[in-house]
Amino acid sequence: MSTQQDLRERRRQRLRFQLRRKGGGRPRLSVFRSGKNIYAQVIDDAAGRTLAAASSLDKALREQLKTGADSDAATAVGKLVAERAVAAGVTQVVFDRGSYLYHGRIKALAEAAREGGLAF
């Protein structure tokens, strides 16, 4: 019987395969959430480098936020990563939610990134 971690890894790999197929060479907006913080980065898989990144641990956000693990923090991180990506010249991305459902903090981050100027 597969463990929960094995199932999560399979779900992550299945999603990444679909993103590579349908992404058309666009950079990937990857999201990771922990119990205490949320992280987002725009990754160019062809070159293998990160173009822009933001997290609830950034000094500017940490002072404003009550906690790094709620929807307000996710919204702030989404706006910040979109701002940094647009400054780096990226406007079209593919959203990689990892093994997380598109709900709650993940959805809040995605909507804030769209409002910030990223198209996906």
UniProtKB/TrEMBL annotation:
GO CC terms of this entry: cytosolic large ribosomal subunit
Record GO biological process: translation
UniProt cross-references to InterPro entries, sorted A to Z: Ribosomal_L18, Ribosomal_uL18_bac-type, Ribosomal_uL18_bac/plant/anim
Transmembrane region(s): none
Keyword RNA-binding: yes
Gene3D superfamilies documented for this protein: 3.30.420.100
One annotated GO molecular function: structural constituent of ribosome
Protein keywords: Ribonucleoprotein, Ribosomal protein, RNA-binding, rRNA-binding
UniProt cross-references to SUPFAM superfamilies, sorted A to Z: Translational machinery components
CDD domains for the chain: Ribosomal_L18_L5e
Function description: This is one of the proteins that bind and probably mediate the attachment of the 5S RNA into the large ribosomal subunit, where it forms part of the central protuberance.
Family of this protein: Belongs to the universal ribosomal protein uL18 family.
NCBIfam families assigned to the protein according to its UniProt record, in alphabetical order: L18_bact (TIGR00060)
PANTHER family reported in the protein's UniProt record: 39S RIBOSOMAL PROTEIN L18, MITOCHONDRIAL (PTHR12899), LARGE RIBOSOMAL SUBUNIT PROTEIN UL18M (PTHR12899:SF3)
Protein name (record): Large ribosomal subunit protein uL18
Organism: Gluconacetobacter liquefaciens
UniProt gene name: rplR
